[in-house]
Design brief:
By secondary structure, this protein is an alpha+beta fold. The chain contains twelve helices and seven strands. It has three domains: about 160 residues, no CATH class; about 90 residues, Helix Hairpins; about 50 residues, SH3 type barrels (Roll). A hairpin with a 2-residue loop joins strand 3 and strand 4. Helix 4 runs antiparallel to helix 5, helix 5 runs antiparallel to helix 6 and helix 8 packs antiparallel against helix 9. The longest helix is centred in the N-terminal third of the chain and has 32 residues.
């Protein structure tokens, strides 16, 4: 017996959805409870818009009276204020939906329940995407969540999953499908987000410890981040069910290519670790490198941030600090001799 073609099944599902959408649009043009539900939804939208402005102004005035709040708390309030209208709409829609479910036929509140669910998902996706700092990655996460939510509500997740699983690359006993790749990216992204939150909390704790020197603080923070992200990656891959032994040949070839293409990146990374270990340069030191003179602001994985006296910030690769001649004015002693020339009459 021949297996059904996943692509043909997917096309049939899409055609059925389009036909159902056309029938729904036609039914909305006729008087009845579906039309009444649309009027209720429009009224809820207008009411939530008015409540958004009223409660937003009150919230803004209340926040201005608060003092000592951290940046993440202020950012959370700003994001909450931007979505007050959606939150009001979802809250009122769910209340009306639950009331109508108990006092009348369930079909008479079907559309209200759909809109309440969609707006709730909208708010959830908006707040979940804010956990991603990188703006392009945040957009990718937002679109991915919306695509999945749309497929879920259209009840075609299984058809799309079979179609994506049919698009696969086989190397011997190893099989890598498009569905596995997408699932792995999602799971690893979730683990990476958790690892970032834990690493930020750990970094804040390490920086508060005054018994650790600045250079060792940076080294400890980088070590914790590297460990957490490495564990997150392998946990994500194992959670998806990918056999790491089957990736040995493929990962080896990719590793060789990356090794040639990222020589400078790896060199800067290793140079940064050496600088942190030997403590030749640490945050707060005054250095001069060529024509650049300033203070070490931060030591990153690839570069050191040097701020000059006129406010310019130079990002110097770590490799230059290892291979070049660097004058550290405050390496072992903050007192230096300055020659000041002046004329006499």
């Amino acid at each position: 017996m021949m297996k059904p073609d996943p692509f043909a099944t997917f096309l049939e599902s899409v055609q059925a959805l389009i036909a159902g959408g056309l029938r729904l649009a036609e039914s909305l043009m006729q008087p009845g409870w579906r039309q009444y539900q649309m009027f209720i939804i429009i009224g809820l939208a207008l009411a939530s818009w008015a409540l958004h402005h009223a409660s937003g102004n009150w919230l803004q005035a209340w926040v201005r009276t608060r003092e000592g709040w951290s940046k993440w708390q202020l950012r959370a309030i700003v994001q909450f204020k931007r979505r007050l209208g959606l939150i009001w709409f979802a809250s009122m829609a769910w209340m009306i939906y639950l009331v109508m479910q108990n006092i009348t036929w369930p079909s008479r509140s079907y559309l209200i329940g759909i809109f309440a669910t969609l707006v709730t998902v909208w708010v959830g996706i908006a707040f979940a995407a804010r956990l991603v700092r990188n703006r392009p990655m945040r957009r990718l996460v937002t679109w991915g969540l919306w695509i999945y939510a749309t497929l879920y509500f259209l009840n075609v997740v299984d058809d799309v999953s079979r179609f994506l699983d049919a698009v696969a690359l086989s190397i011997g006993d190893f099989r890598l499908s498009l569905l596995t790749v997408i699932t792995a990216l999602v799971v690893i992204g979730i683990f990476f987000s958790v690892a970032r939150i834990v690493s930020q909390a750990s970094a804040a704790t390490i920086r508060k410890n005054e018994d650790i020197s600045p250079s060792m603080q940076v080294l400890a923070v980088k070590g914790v981040q590297l460990t957490l992200y490495g564990v997150a990656f392998f946990m994500g891959v194992k959670a998806v069910g990918v056999d790491l032994t089957g990736l040995a040949v493929l990962s080896g070839a990719i590793g060789v290519g990356l090794g040639f293409g990222l020589q400078k990146v790896v060199s800067n990374l290793v140079s940064g670790i050496i600088i942190l270990i030997d403590k030749s340069i640490k945050p707060g030191d005054v250095i001069s490198l060529g024509d650049t003179f300033g203070w070490i602001q931060t030591l990153g994985a690839r570069y050191a941030s040097v701020v000059t006296r006129d406010g310019k910030e130079y990002l110097i690769p770590n490799e230059d600090l290892i291979t070049g001649q660097v004058v550290n004015w405050s390496h072992s002693n903050d007192f230096v001799r300055l020659d000041i020339y002046f004329g006499t009459a």
